[in-house]
Amino acid sequence: LAASPFARLTNSQYAATLRDLFAPIAIPDQVPPPDISVDGFDNVASAQVPSAALIAAYQTSAVAVATAATQDPAALVGCSPRTIVDERACASRFLGTFGAKAYRRPLTSAELADLVAFHSTMRAGGADFPTSITLTIETILQSPNFLYRIEIGTPLSPYEMASRLSYLLWNTMPDDALFAAAADGTLATTDGIETQARRMLADPRAHAAIMHFHSQWLELDKMSTLVKDPKTFPTFTASTVTSLQQSTSSYIDDIFFGDGTLTALLTDDHAFVNADLAAIYGVAVTSKTLKKVAVDPTKRAGIVTNAGMLAGFAHTTQDSPVLRGVFVLDRLLCSAPPPRPTDVNTSPPAPNPNVPQTTRDEFATQHEQGACAGCHHVIDGIGFGFENYDAIGAWRTTDNGLPVDSSGWFVTGTAGELQGTFDGAVDLAHELAASPTVHACVARQWLRYALGVDAASIDTTTLEPLVSAFESSNLNMRELVVALVKSDAFRRRSR
Amino acid sequence: MIISRRNLVQLLGLAGASYAMSSLPFVPLARAGNPTIPKRIVFFYTEQGTRRVRQSDGTIVTDWTPTVPNAPSPLSIEQPWSSSNFTLGPTHQPLTQFQNQLLFLDGLDMISANVDPTPPDNSHIAGTTHALIAANRKTGSVAGGASIDQLIAQTITTTALASLEAFASADSYPYEAGGSGLSAPLYSGPGAVVPIQGNPMTIYQRMFPNGVDSSAAAKAAAALKIKQQQSVLEHAATDFSSLSSRVGKLDATRLASHAAAIRDLESRLALGPNAACAEPDATVIDPVKGLEPGSASYSAHMDVFQRLIQVALACDLTRVATLYVSQPPDDLFGYQANMLGTGDFHDMVHKTSGPTPPLDGDPIALGVVRAYHAYHATQFANFLKLLQGITESDGTTLLDNTLVVWCGQIAGGDHSLDRLPYLLAGKMGGAVTPARYVMMPRTPNGGPAHNDFFVSLANMMGVATSTFGNPSVCKGALTGWAT
Q1: Rounded-to-integer distance, Cα A8 and Cα B232, Å
Q2: Angle at B15 between CA B12 and CA B17, to 5 degrees
């Protein structure tokens, strides 16, 4: 496993951690500059190079948060000292508790003494007692012990493990129970880690964090800016976009926390549908709220046939065999095609109004020959399998008045899987679900996310035991996560 | 920011599959020239184009162009040509003491106005809707895009005010769009007029909504705040250092990089424009009080607005300002009603510009028109003096860190929109080298679009863009003029 520096809290972790650190005292939301996303993931530690803008944002944020938190000083620090001597005792008590929470581990006596001394220096330098507390909080919030997940132990210390678990499964700081499990040494054992991981996965806080992973793995952000041509799709409105986003999230959440298997994620024949989406899925639902309904299993199977996904990997009027094919190759097979050459025209082919063609034929004419074919034969073979879905993810049997051909082919299959041809996306989905390459890819995506590294950093030695555990659990994704947090790769940081 | 791993490697200038970004050191902002002082830009906008007489061979004679020995014809050059050897013309004499701060930028055309498919309501509006916007009009009198000042302002999010606009006239009314047969010159987007305030008190209150406490106690409190923030940062940076000694090289490098950025911020807190900032109390607007509309009121408004902009820039309340300099009352430059048979001064401007201007040979008419332009030059000089009078924390002046762009609605008194007379002043933190006359290459069809000039101004102010206004007339940032 390639070495990686300390992870810094991502944007969303920073905001959530501040919120939990001061709760129940409400603080203003803080948004530092955006994370640098590597292959869609926001937590790749090696890319977290500090910038001047980031450091300035941390300072502004620390001032805003600490000022808001000390509006009622007694409520925060828990004492109202009257003398300088009292102040010192009060500050020391507060900083010991607050500091431990902020650093996500108990302070050493030297660290506490240092913070108390800083407070006293500020006090002596002209700040009143509450201001001195505010300033001390500000420096804590800019300390590496707060901003980074400092991991020195080998294997990681119980407190370091508590943070690893918490940021993976909740995307925020540990709760009291996790701190307790660190304090009593439970997290030094595999069993203890498993117990905590299962508790955390069962906690409501896990849902947003698990979705955070899926939205990065499955590129759900493609749906955040959906725009479709109003002439081609007159019923597709802003409300449709919101419904599609929620429908896809609900589907993933339902599978992960319900059935739990990758097989279900890839082949399940249910969808979350409301009035906006009823026509797209061809079901009768009139409610404004999304309802889980059965869909035609000959037309839909799992996440790759999810309407939101299909609409996301499409253009404004036209579907996109290329975007859909690349998605499957990159995100499900971990075999991204090489980046497109810089000197090619990447606009989708313009339809010729005089000679109606299917999208497939338009792309085939342009791609399946000459220099393009090298990559596009691989991409389009998968992408053409989705031709039964238009640019908003609705089922179709004709395209431009011509019958749809949704047959596809595999180019890169290894022995016994993903070979030859397939017939449409439902067939493709079942092939993917049975593919060991896909199983390994999903394990790889979880590993890279959990470790905060890029996919290339993960070696076979690290990956293989996890894939075995995944497969022997009948491809249960929650079990994959449990196996992951118990693994050596998760408990020892490569540095 | 979303980048692929491959792009990330490229971005960081690293090749190959293995990369070690963690080892990259933090590069502090403070390098040569001390860019800790922000760059500012001010648009000094006047109404009447310069006097220009169009000769039969197509060349023009103006009072604007300085005398430049050995200047080639703009038609004969392919690259921008510049010279630091120039003599100010008659209307720029008031700027003599600032000659080494001036940059004459000659040869740009308002092409966007010429290609605009929507006809303007009149030939002044043709310029107003394009002078700072350069995009196709929305209607005959409404511009169809954001003006350059607003584009820049919209991307500066660290100052209390995105931008400041003042309308200097003989009374305290705001600039009324369309009220005088003209249209608004500033827009935040297509059709979205930015109001230009004419009341000094309104602007003062925008700048200092809570008033100003200039007491020694308030100053001491501000100084204490800076000192406290430095202590907070220093303590955090020390945390990084003490941790570094206990970790491996990869981690230590990352921590050191973060600590360096903190120390950089710490040192910048003491710098910055605050050191040069003296917030005035509300008496700064007293000179305009109790004056009837007229030349005294006009001069007082001009002076107060210039002082307010000076303070706003020095205190970093904003980095973008526009001073709309309306036509001065006649007596400030010697025009008298019905002089030489003219209806008003505007009429006299027309009769001294164009192909065969009837009053061109008249020494009195020429004298008045030149006096008008010289009066604006005096106002410009006064403003430059105010900017030069502020010393920033690194010893440079506010003018050194500002670019003042004297621009206007039209190019010439004949409503022409070619060879726009841009007179620039200041160095904008080193981005501009003044004390030069710069001529852009032209063809018989015209010169470069002023859009491209604005692209380069936007770039200098930190806005990453390659087009401005109507993209079809843009060729990218104008090069070869700034340094």
Answers
A1: 20
A2: 110
In chain B, whose CA is at the least distance from the CA of A103?
B239
Distance from CA of A92 to the nearest CA of B (A): 17
CA distances to B333, B372, B421 from B367, rounded to whole Å, are 9, 9, 20
Query: Which of A5, A62, A143 minimises the CB distance to B251?
Result: A5
Q: Is the pTM of this model over 0.95?
A: no
pLDDT band with cut points at 50, 70 and 90 for residue A244: very high
Q: Do A125 and B232 touch (CB under 8 A)?
A: no
Residue A52 and residue B250: Cβ atoms within 8 Å? no
Q: What's the 3-state SS for B307-330? A: HHHHHHHHCCCCCEEEEEECCCCH
Give the pLDDT confidence of B133-145 residue by residue, as tens digits. 999 998 888 899 9
Q: Which tokens sit at B47?
A: 């109404």
Question: Three-class SS of residue A76?
Answer: helix
Burial of residue B347 (CB within 10 Å: 0-12, 13-18, 19+) is: middle
d(CA A39, CA A388): 28
Residues from chain B that touch A139, judged by Cβ atoms under 8 A, are: 231-233, 235-236, 239
Structural tokens at position B339: 């002089």
Most B CBs within 10 A among A6, A31, A448, A459, hence the mutation to make, goes to: A6
Interface test with B, best of A8, A11, A55 (most B CBs within 10 A): A55
Whether the predicted pLDDT of B26 surpasses 50:
no
3-state helix/strand/coil string of B60-101: EEECCCCECCCCCCCCCCCCCEEECCCECCHHHHHHHHHHHH
pLDDT tens-digit map of B120-129? 888 889 999 9
Partners of B29 on chain A (C-beta within 8 Å) are 52
Nearest-angstrom CA–CA distance, A435 and A413: 9
Q: Do A37 and B236 make contact, defined as CB atoms within 8 angstroms?
A: no
* Strand pairing report for B422-425 and B402-408: antiparallel
Residue of chain A whose Cα is closest to the Cα of B1: A36
3-class secondary-structure state, position A163: helix
- Cβ neighbours of residue A53 under 8 Å, at least 6 residues apart? A33
Structure tokens at A270: 């249910």
Lowest-confidence range among A61-65, A104-108, A414-418, B352-356? A414-418
For residue B5 the two structure tokens come to 């791993």
Helix (H, G, I), strand (E, B) or coil at B371: helix
